[in-house]
Design a protein that fits this description.
Layout: H1 3-14, H2 28-40, E1 50-55, H3 58-61, H4 71-74, E2 78-84, H5 100-117, E3 121-125, H6 130-137, E4 144-152, H7 168-171
Antiparallel strand pairs: 1-2, 2-4, 3-4
Helix pairs in contact: 2-5
Length: 177
C-alpha cells in the first residue's frame, strides 16, 4: 500500500465523535473548506436537496444552547445545522423513497472527513428537538432538520482508537442474504 493510501486510512481511523472541544476558534479558511466539501458532495440525480445553516459566532449560537443535552456541544465554536428539502430531492420510482435525507447525510459525512483532515473534531448531534431548532433559526416548515454538527478543535488529540464493531461475517452477505 502506498503512502497516500496509508494516510487516507489512518485519517479515516482517527475520525470519531468528539463531545468536548477546546474552545479554540476554527479559522475562516478551514470553515470555507468544510463548506466547499458540502457543496461538492454527491447526491441522487445531482439534485442537491440540502441547506446548511452555519453558526460561528457566540451571539448566533446562543439560542441553540438549550437544544443540546451535553455541555460539550455548547462549547463547540462551529455549528452546522444540516437540513433536507424533500421537494428538491430525487425519489426512487419503484417505492417512492425520497432521497433528501440520504443526500444530506452523504454531504455531512464527506464534510466530517474533511474536518478530520483539518485536525478538527466533530459530532453528529441528532438528540435534538427539531421543532425547537426550527423555531430558534426560522427554518421553513417544509424543510427537514436532519442534525446539528458540532465542530471544533478537540480537547484531546485525535488518535486512532479501535472501537468495538460487529465482525464482517455479521454484516456482509455475499451473493444473497
Amino acid at each position: 500500500m502506498d503512502d497516500k493510501l496509508k494516510d487516507f486510512y489512518e485519517l479515516h481511523r482517527r475520525r470519531k465523535s468528539i463531545r468536548e472541544f477546546s474552545g479554540r476558534l476554527v479559522e475562516p479558511e478551514k470553515i470555507e473548506r468544510l463548506l466547499e466539501a458540502l457543496r461538492r458532495s454527491q447526491s441522487a440525480a445531482n439534485r442537491q436537496p440540502w441547506h446548511f445553516i452555519v453558526i460561528s459566532d457566540r451571539e448566533g449560537r446562543a439560542p441553540l444552547d438549550e437544544v443540546f443535552t451535553k455541555e460539550g456541544f455548547r462549547k463547540a465554536p462551529l455549528l452546522i445545522v444540516a437540513c433536507a428539502d424533500p421537494a428538491q430531492a430525487w425519489t426512487r420510482r419503484a417505492d417512492k423513497v425520497n432521497y433528501a435525507w440520504v443526500d444530506t447525510t452523504i454531504a455531512v459525512t464527506e464534510m466530517i472527513e474533511v474536518a478530520t483532515a483539518e485536525g478538527l473534531g466533530s459530532c453528529w448531534v441528532a438528540a435534538i428537538e427539531p421543532e425547537l431548532v426550527r423555531e430558534k433559526l426560522g427554518i421553513p416548515g417544509q424543510i427537514d432538520i436532519v442534525a446539528i454538527i458540532a465542530i471544533g478543535y478537540p480537547e484531546k488529540e485525535l488518535v486512532v482508537e479501535d472501537k468495538a464493531r460487529k465482525p464482517l461475517a455479521e454484516i456482509i452477505h455475499h451473493g444473497k442474504w
